Amino acid sequence: MTKMNMKDFMSENYKVEDFAHLHWTGSFQDYVDLVAEDPRIGRNSFQRIFDMIMTFGTSTYLEYKKEITRYHFFDDPIGNGKDAVFGIDVHLMKLVNFFKAAALGYGTEKRVLLLHGPVGSAKSSIARNLKKGLEYYSRTDEGALYTFEWYDEEESDILGGQKVFPSPMHEDPLKLIPHEVRKEFLENMNKGNKDHKIKIRGEVCPADRYILNEYMIKYDGDFMKVMENHIRVKRLVLSEKDRLGIGTFQPKDEKNQDSTELTGDINYRKIAQYGSDSDPRAFNFDGEFNIANRGIIEFIEMLKLDVAFLYDLLGASQEQSIKPKKFAQTDIDLVILGHTNEPEFRKLQNNEFMEALRDRTVKIDVPYITRLDNEVRIYQRDFNAEKIPHVHIAPHTLDMAAMWAVLTRMEEPKKADLTLVQKLKLYNGKTLTGYNEDNVKELRKEAVREGLEGISPRYIQDKISNALVKYGHTGSLNPFMVFNELESGLKHSMANNPEAVDKYREMLAIVRQEYTDIVKNDVQKAISLDETAIETLCANYIDNVKAYTQKEKVRNKYTGKLEEADERFMRSIEEKIDIAESRKDDFRREIMNYIGALAIEGKQFDYKMNERLHRALELKLFEDQKDAIKLTTIISNVVDKETQEKIDVIKSRLIKNYGYCEISATDALNYVASIFAKGDSAKS
After folding, report:
1. How many angstroms separate the CA atoms of 122 and 85, rounded?
2. Distance between CA atoms of 323 and 351, rounded to whole angstroms?
3. Cα–Cα distance between 233 and 670 in angstroms, integer?
């Protein structure tokens, strides 16, 4: 190991000026100057969170003819995507609109924000992003905010013999300005200021108010002398770990719940020092509401709170104030964010005693993802070559696990001609004859409970992890290994719901069949990837079609004789893509008309230009070559040298073109070979 010179390392990588910038201190006048220069400093917590989200930018896209906004903040750029939230952009738009309305003072700032959804549906991820975002934003110049501390060189009794007394609830210094001059002060500060009007709401906390009054008495009401001699303004960097502006509360069992955990409690050791338990300096303003002032408080499983807590919650939301023990109402500036699951929310709806809370709550649904591509992204984030370099994850493994998860969350379509898998594919942007965007939009509308039930991403992640532990020694993880884990875990995790277990097993069988079709397709494509052979086949088909449509003859390349168009050969290709006998003439004319139109433009026809014909040629070539390759012999131990060489070519194509490794390519070939062996056996 090479030695490291720490002095050189720190001088290159650590900037003392950055530390100094974040630990800026100044006078009260300095702070007023800063606010005059940048009024955003005086924003409230809702305005700050909304601006923070918008700082990261947006993009828009169309879904079912409706413009959807994607807020890049929820891609978690701060945490490199660790807490990225996918697939629920419509619901995130509602969340951001809540903050926007609150920032503009339209009333939602007096509400509790409740994220509601099933377990594992990203409610906690959204909360983590908001808290993490606030921490990050408070360290930037654009998101800077400030608080103050009292200081007294004489260690006077006013500060309890201390030289420094930080504002316990890290209040905004502007709240020190006396009520009688606030109106004139704000008029002066807001002159010509259109974008960010400065507002001052409420009083400082009881301890700050007590100290201010004492110093005002000492200086005969000279406010500026108090500010100049005893107030030091400092930068406030929000931090959940340091309990600065970000609080988190999780209910414990009912016997141990105590509302002082939210609003603070008396410090009995200081009563002797100050002589009274009603002296605010003898109070610990360390409840979650106190420490979360100027930022956000998160209530985990909020509806499990004891009734005593709910009264504090109601006052904190509606009145934007809390009631610490033995003190008057104390103003707060914070966002109250709670989250809860479906059963707990149903209890809230059915409990008439909770009507006041319901009335003060804005519910934002956070459902499970029902778009396959977005579900896959969740698992790709956790299971990829970078994080798991020692095990190759075979193609389609994560897709199949995601497909099953999404299927369990979907409601059966009411249309008899539509299967659940087809509905899933429509949701994922695939086209289906007879269905347009309006039809898909209608399908989503009629499925009221979709995304609120089903298998959670956590279950899938756990089972993929189990499969990696169990089969990782093989060097490759394939869909069947994951299928086994998904199914075996069902009985244990859903022991109280046998109907759901049966239903989910049926869906797993559907996904297994989907995988069978997909892996067969991969092998078929790998076998028929011989472009020269496809081009020859295509040229032969076009020659025959041309002769047929123009009632001419085709020259046999071996005998040189003119012969009738080979009907059997043409049909062997067309049947691969279900061209009925009655439609063959139309299909052949379409091909010839297209070739003719290209010729007029001086262009030459290429089989890749017609997707259906391309697929038909691939399938025809596969059928012709699978017998030559003797695919069914792969599963036997006797493979001749020529066949082995052909198999090795197919494997190399699977690896090079379709993302397989040596092990998973062998597995795929063996599986597909076994299917054809069964088919041949059935035919015989």
Report:
1. 7
2. 25
3. 73
DSSP labels, 436-464 = -HHHHHHHHHH-TTTTSSS--HHHHHHHH
Structure tokens at 289: 């509401």
Question: What is the model's pLDDT at position 495?
Answer: 67
**Residue 377 is which amino acid?**
R
d(CA 369, CA 88): 7
CA angle 96, 205, 329 (to 5 degrees): 80
Q: What is the pTM of this model?
A: 0.84
Helix (H) or strand (E) holding 246: strand 246-249
**With contact defined as beta carbons under 8 Å apart, do 147 and 120 qualify?**
no
DSSP line for 492-557: HHTTT-HHHHHHHHHHHHHHHHHHHHHHHHHHHHHHT--HHHHHHHHHHHHHHHHHHHTT--EE-T
> Is the separation of the CB atoms in 113 and 338 below 8 Å?
yes
> 89-103 vs 45-55: helix axis angle to the nearest 10?
140
| Structure token pair of residue 513 | 């069949």
Q: State the pLDDT at residue 255.
A: 58
Helices and strands per DSSP (H, E), number in the chain:
28, 19
Residue 316 predicted with pLDDT over 80: yes
**Cβ–Cβ contacts within 10 Å for residue 200, how many?**
17
230/249 Cα distance (integer angstroms): 34
Is residue 178 within 8 A of residue 223, CB to CB? The reply is: yes
Residue 298's closest CA among 527, 128, 462, 183? Answer: 128
Q: Report the alpha-carbon distance of residue 397 to residue 466 in Å, rounded.
A: 14
**Alpha-carbon gap, residue 378 to 363, rounded angstroms:** 25
- The closest of 287, 270, 36, 42 to 171, measured between CA atoms, is 42
Is 526 within 8 Å of 650 (Cβ atoms)?
yes
Residues, the chain: 684
Q: What is the tens place of the pLDDT at every residue in 93-151?
A: 999 999 999 999 999 999 999 999 998 899 999 999 999 999 999 999 999 999 999 99
Distance CA 290, CA 297 (A): 10
